[in-house]
Amino acid sequence: MIVRYPMCQLATDKLNCIFSLRNIVLNIGELSDATSVSQTRIRYWTSKNYLKSTHPNHSNQKYPLMSVFKVRLISYYLKLGYTLRFSTIKADEQIKANELGNIFK
Predict the structure, then answer these.
(1) Could you give the C-alpha distances from 30 to 34, 61, 62, 85, in angstroms and in order?
(2) Strand 24-27 and strand 62-64: pairing?
(3) Which of 28, 44, 98, 100 is the most buried (most CB within 10 A)?
């Protein structure tokens, strides 16, 4: 897991910056381990724009921590028999409805 440290102006802001969840990114291996979804499948989903990486045209792609939830939800809906496109739509809706995205702002 890699934590990006944004520039912080005040010393009191440094801890908030360091521990902010939106700064946590995972490489593809870590995302795969955390979700039990193969790296090949994650690469495919990324290539089809169902997942967003921090460096989409770079071989060393990083994924925001929120991707763990999205990948798990997509995988869940796929196991129920939905298409990848519909599974992604449902995952996005559930994340928005449960306001999971607000945790990482």
Answers:
(1) 6, 11, 10, 24
(2) antiparallel
(3) 28
